[in-house]
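pasting input
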Amino acid sequence: MNLMVSLLAAHYTSWCLMALAQSKHYQYHFAHEGRVSRRRWLRAAGSLLALLTLLYALWRGDWALGAVSWAMSWMVSAMAWVLLQPYRPALARRLALPLLVLAAVLQL
Amino acid sequence: MKHSFAPSMPWLHTWAGLVVGWVLFVIFLSGTLACFDKELDYWMRPALHHLPAGPTSMDAATRTLRAMAPHAETLYLRPPSARDPSIHGFAFEPDQPYIDVAFNPRDGQRIPDTVGGTFFFTLHYNLQAGTIGMYLVGLAGMLMLMALISGVIIHRRIFKDIFVFRPKIGGQRAWLDGHNLTGVLGLPFHLMMAYTGVAIMVAIYMFAGVQIGYRGDTLKFYEEMLGTPHPVEQHRPPSQLAALGPVVADAERRLGNEGIEYVQVEHVHDASVTLYVLAAGRDQIAGGHRTLIYNGITGAFTGETAGPAPSYRVYQFLSGLHRVQFGGTAFRWMYFLLGTAGCVMLASGMQVWINKRNKAVAAAGLRSGYGLVRALNVGVVAGMPLASIGLLWINRLLPDALADRTSWEARGFCLVWLLAALWAWLRLRQGKPWRDLLAGTATLLVLLPVLDLITRPTSSLLASLRDGDRVLTTIDLSALVLGVAFAWLAQRCGRAQPPASKTARATGQRHGGARAEALPP
């Protein structure tokens, strides 16, 4: 259960970063398109986080269960981000960091 | 139909989706609910709540089952597990209905019957319609695979618009966003479920292999696949039947973490009687693969079977991935949420179909194909949730002693659904059938704990909170949360809507042709 919650939380952050890496979403949140280099960093960070969580899920225990946990939580978190974004954009964005911290704390 | 690949994809997506859309919705919703089949089963059997502590009496349950099915050759008994405290018994007698009953684990007596959570599971894989239903589900599954793949092909901005959802724009745009969002973000899950779902039934859908390779001897096929030897009959009755209690205790010790799925008593009436104990293997996706063998007369351990063939193990992995009996509750919640997303994908897809044809729908009136689609949309998409929560109500309202209780529950479910569909059809011309049915569902969901308090005070939310019964508490609280969600949906459907054609014009009707500037305001 702990692993799934951590994965959900970390994926949320990862999706948030990857969404902000798209100019139209960046503009929607910050009213300007943002520098290309900055958006590139956001995408890299989001992808790296997804990769790290995958490696962690595979390493933590049974690889098959880890892979399934990772994939299922990946999809659920994506929907959570996309559903929250239009209704409470600021909250959706500000949740990203605390959730990443929570994900890490739960695994300590 | 169009004559080249690309233009024919929207056509394929539209029709593969629409033709089986309602059947798929039934399959999706019942499958989503069946994620928690054992938990719902437990909720629907108040006799199992507040069981006194004590030993499990497998032998008393076996005696009860034997009395119920005196001519059955094989008996199956499932000992209590973390998810299901009852002993379950299964038996099949020639020309008799299949026996599937629950026993009190303390005294082995039958507890009042219910269709239980298994109802949704059966609805999921054969629509409660036997072999024909199974084929229909398979056909729907294959069409779903086609709709998914063609959907990806026609969604031109699949990556650019992956995070786009504009509910505030309303109308067709919002419906299409919702359809894309649940379809695209849940795509790996939907593809996996559609594929494994069809693959589970492969021996039934593609029976030529068994017919040719085994000359139609399915028993031999399964014997080889599972690696379980069939005892040779001795044509004389057994002196006695070994006590199951010690056998189960011994098997539990040998299997350790793997746990027991069920005990199979083979050749009950013959001296060759043999006990097979199958491992549950809940920590593996494919489930357990070990089967312990015991002598059915003495109860002595005689060894293990060779185990399933590697190909069968692959099959078990695919089927396990679909049935989610592995891991803990967290996995079932993930499947539940993604299954819900699948229901939304289907419902919004069918709504997009109607919205796109607004003018034609208005011109054709209710006595037309369009009217039928609209009526089916409300009747199925809003009617089935109402019937499902209705089933839980019926379970609590029917008296325990009622003969043939399970049939009455199933009839009640169908009746609620029929009435809901009829109401939807009658109110389509004037009124808001969506709001009516969704509000009805919300009411039944929110009042479920109240009903419990009146009919079964010992199983109510208050009692389960006090006793720390996690399963009952979660089901009642989930009903409250879902009730609020349905109330919100009903309220949204109840709002006055702008004239349909205006909405369609204002938001554009191109399929997949999202406009970049139309992000949420």
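fyi The mean pLDDT of chain A is 94.
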